[in-house]
Amino acid sequence: MGPFMDAYPEVRLSLIFDDNLVDIAAQGFDAGLRIGELLEKDMIGARLGGPLQTVVLGSPDYLARNGTPKRPADLAAHRCIAFAFTRTRAISPWEFVVDGHQVEFTPDARLVVNTLPLCITAAAQGLGLAFAVEGLAAPLLASGALVKVLEPFCPTYEPLHLYYPSRRLVPPKLRAFIDFVRANAHNLRI
Fold first, then answer.
1. Does 101 share its domain with 171?
2. Could you point out which of 5, 109, 113, 153 has its C-alpha 20 to 30 Å from the C-alpha of 42?
3. Does residue 136 share a domain with residue 88?
């Protein structure tokens, strides 16, 4: 967001991260981000980048101490770091594709967090395995602080979309943000 804020110093950004489905117009937001393109009929969506690859991540130290899972069923013997939805506190199941079928695993986690970056950070610290979107972990994967496991079983999700109300006239500041995000979608780490 730095380059956008430098180019448009008069624009104020409020970035709110929430795992709930939000009616952005009713909540007073100009735009939102959502995986997939299922939007309300009065919304316009702009695809940002390509499909989102999921990964299971662990630190080399954790894997050396605990072994590397070979199949999703092996996760039951591992410490897993779970993501829980903020509003409901329900643990998000990990999704896999095994023999062409979707399989879910809900970790019986000792550590539960409410953001994916916290899951990734905890995994890098050797606290267990995390399930996340690969782009969020790219720097730690590149540095070797994290390693991907169970790659053949990890599904790909639909791309991220920026969405906003379909108005006849999009405010200039919102138009500038939409254009910036579209032009820089390839640099976004999601």
1. no
2. 5
3. yes
| pLDDT tens per residue, range 111-146 | 999 989 999 999 999 999 999 999 999 999 999 999
Residue with tokens 């399930």: 131
CA-CA distance, 141 to 58, in Å (whole number)? 10
* Lookup result for tokens 């899951």: 119
Contacts of 52 (CB under 8 A, 6+ apart): 35, 133, 134, 135, 156, 157, 158, 159, 160, 190
Contact 30, 24 (CB under 8 A): yes
- The number of domains in the chain is 2
- For residues 88 and 18, membership in a common domain is answered with no
Domain that holds residue 165: 2-49+158-187
State the average pLDDT over residues 35-39: 71
Indicate if the pLDDT at residue 190 is higher than 50. Answer: no
Asked if residue 106 and residue 87 are part of one domain, the reply reads yes
Phi-psi region of 99 (alpha: psi -120 to 50; beta: other; left: phi over 0): left
